[in-house]
Structure formats: structure tokens, C-alpha cells
Specification:
Structural class: alpha+beta
Largest sheet: 5 strands, antiparallel
Low-confidence stretches: 180-185
Radius of gyration: 16 Å
Number of strands: 10
Mean pLDDT: 86
Number of helices: 4
Shape: globular
Distance between the termini: 33 Å
Oligomer: single chain
Order of helices and strands: HEHEEEHEEEEEHE
Length: 211
């Protein structure tokens, strides 16, 4: 049987289902850092462009990502959105998330990302969440049925739309594309289960978990 070729917008990124070993290696590790990249020179400029108030949490606003997670110094996991697969996409980088030159290191390795999708500024999650030094207890992958979200364009979209992280002390967050209460055409955001639109929640299927 001929192997199905998955068309990707980001060819050097993998689907969550292709990254099970990498995701499983994060379980039982403590979060050293979690940041978001924005396509603006500052958080204030980003708020102005997105018409956000000071009370709005930019991590919950779909704008394309990327998100950066670190459990080990010198190594960072990048989460992005791949429009062609309608999925969260990720890869591992040998870059230190805490370094001032992190974005330079990122894009020296992430050569396939077009210039308009390159983050200009990092925002630390500690401004909005209490993730730091929390242990990752389990990770799950969720998907939609094939071609559920988009118009069929000649191939089946994997639709691996969410990666769920359960942390110590009962914390939980979802890195997801297009399944919050706000309609998203592209991009990923952090939301909680109670913010998932009902029509999306009913279609979600958890097909893998690492504990």
C-alpha cells in the first residue's frame, strides 16, 4: 500500500501524533519556562493591533503563535500552527529559552518559517499563569474527524487540533487551534475546557495520552 504523503506548511515540524516520544519525554518534568511569540515589537503594540484591553490575556487570543516550552536548559519545544494540516505542529530546538538571543537561535534553525510568521517579541506566561516549576503529570492529543474544519481541497487533514497538559496542583491547559469560543481561521492559543465551543467539544476525540 502506498504511504500517504501529508502536505505541510511547515515541513520541518511534526504533528503531535508523530511526536509521541518527544511529548512522553516531558512527563514528570518540571516546567522551567513557557513563553509566547508575538508578531509585534512589544506587548503594548500587540495589544493595540488586536484591540485588547490591559485585562485581556494575550495567551488566549488566537494570533498564530508560536509557543515555547522548556523543561531542560538548552532545549526548547516549539508549538506552532500548520494551516495545511489544520493541526498543532511542534519541533525540538537546541536553544536556551532564557537567552536574550533565543529568537536568533530559533530562526537560524527554523529556516522554513516565512518572515511574516516570525515572532519579534517573547511574552512570559508568568505574567498570566502560575506554570513555573509545576510538574507535567500527563499529556493528551485531541483531534477532529478528517476534514471536519476545512473545505476539502483534495486531501484529508489530520486535524490534530489540541495538546492538553495536566500539571501538578490541579493545573491544566490546552494548546489548541480553532476550538475556542472565538472562531479562529489560523493560529493557536491557550484556553481551558470551559472555553471550548460546544459544537467543537462534541466532535473532539482523545486518541493518545502519556502518563
Amino acid at each position: 500500500m502506498e504511504e500517504t504523503v501529508i502536505r505541510r506548511e511547515l515541513p520541518n515540524y511534526n504533528l503531535p501524533s508523530e511526536s509521541k516520544d518527544l511529548l512522553a519525554s516531558l512527563v514528570s518534568q518540571e516546567l522551567l519556562g513557557f513563553k509566547m511569540g508575538i508578531f509585534a515589537s512589544s506587548l503594548e503594540t500587540f495589544r493595540e493591533k488586536k484591540k485588547l484591553s490591559c485585562e485581556d490575556n494575550p495567551f488566549s487570543i488566537p494570533h498564530g503563535g508560536p509557543f515555547f516550552l522548556s523543561v531542560q536548559e538548552g532545549t526548547t519545544i516549539v508549538f506552532n500552527f500548520d494551516n495545511l494540516t489544520s493541526s498543532v505542529a511542534l519541533r525540538k530546538l537546541e536553544c536556551n529559552l532564557q537567552d536574550k538571543s533565543f529568537l536568533d537561535c530559533l530562526y537560524s534553525q527554523d529556516t522554513y518559517v516565512p518572515s511574516f510568521l516570525k515572532a519579534k517579541t517573547l511574552v512570559d506566561s508568568e505574567l498570566y499563569y502560575n506554570f513555573s516549576v509545576k510538574k507535567i503529570e500527563n499529556i493528551s492529543i485531541y483531534k477532529y474527524p478528517m476534514n471536519y474544519r476545512g473545505k476539502p481541497i483534495g486531501y484529508d487533514s489530520p486535524n490534530e487540533v489540541a495538546v492538553c497538559f495536566n500539571l501538578s496542583e490541579g493545573l491544566e491547559f490546552l494548546l489548541m487551534s480553532g476550538i475556542g469560543k472565538q472562531q479562529m481561521s489560523t493560529g493557536i492559543a491557550i484556553i481551558e475546557w470551559n472555553s471550548v465551543r460546544r459544537e467543537c467539544f462534541d466532535k473532539l476525540e482523545r486518541f493518545w495520552v502519556a502518563v
